[in-house]
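Q: Convert this sequence to structure tokens.
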Amino acid sequence: MKRNFNEQKDNDDSLSKREPTFSEQVDAVLAGKYNRFDALKVCDTPQILLDAGLQQLPILYTQNHLKDAVHEKSKNNPHWHGLSVEQLKKIPQLLETPAILMDSLNNDGSVVAVLPMRDNDNALIFATIKPNGAGTYEYQLVNSNFMLSIYGKEKGFERYIERAVEENKILYWNKEKSQEIQCAELLMAQGLNILDSNRILHQTNSSVNNIAHSAEKSINQSNLLIEDKIIVRFNGHWGERGWTYDEKEFDIGKPSEALDFYENASLPKGISIHHTNGFVSDAAYARDYLSELIRREHRSSALETHHVLKENEVKNLEIVTQEEFNRIVDALYQEPKPDYKNIPNIIRLPAINEQLAKELGVENANFFLKANVAHVRPERKSVYNQDLRIEEMKGMLDFIRNTNTAYIDSDGRHKNFMLVGFDSKDKAKANKIVFNQDELGNYIVTIGKIQSAEFEKKQYSKVAVGV
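A:
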């Protein structure tokens, strides 16, 4: 089911985690660390665009468009725009103060923002936005105003603006911003200077047109698009009217049933996801997307959810610093016995790799409880040859931040997960940090060593990212 992004965010009363900035998302995409199914969230729709008639929705932007935007320009590909990464990262702020807003001259229902910045070839940067669209964000289809393109317009700019004036496409223009970027083309465009500056001239027709088009498309398809659905087509036959198929419909919440049916359906066959706004994702994308949903469901169901953490104790707890943690480890390793009075009741640990947390399907808030410290004290672990050296223990914060490998223990007794890294001095052993999943995050059950060969057992399911 497609969700309203802002309602979902406002109603989420679980332990909150900071939403990554657009700049951080850009870095993650270019480093190959961003979820391959998700669009980027540029920002929430700025006030000036709301005044121009757009709805308050997140502005989303695809990874492929991002990569095209920063790719070096080439005559062989007009979609490569040669923007710098730093220029691209400024888009959320630039959208708040455009030089011009206008309906597209292509009559395609999009809105064009002329931004107060030039590219490396001194061309003014345009951003094209499709109102009332949809995109995949955090593995869900969400309503959005979708950013179609960000590029520098090099030729015919003055005539382009004159046409927009003639066709009453200008929604807003800001004379001061035009002067700020020394845009002679804007200031010289015939008819623009007689328009009022720095106020909305009229609202866009795009939002109304897109809503009407979506409603019309739903009616034309016999209301198949009222809800998100998976459609499997099978037993195809060629006739006078082309291919016809038998069809079976599945709820979006039952991807396993849909894929099982598809895999065993008679040829020719196909599978697609039908969304509420009329968007249809077909073929390989639909299969990959549904497979990912199934995989995440299986992993999440493999973990038992505990109710140990208390919200009033963990909600505002700061992440422990390395200096503080060193003192805690020294207290734990003190001889002849640990100095428990200098160990806090709850220690908040760093977040794990963000993509790894998504793959595991867990909240990325991690804790170490004093009640479980006794399980990791060295004199107890040494009995089983599982004790960590004190320098390994002090390096645990970096280990949590940087490891990209985990295992889910899915047997009937534990149903938890562990972060794993090999012992630098003994490759036959691995260091493990075992977490229980809690409704408010994850907490350490135990820390120790394990024989590397143990991971070959069927009860362990490997989860790795960036490898």
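The radius of gyration is 27 Å.
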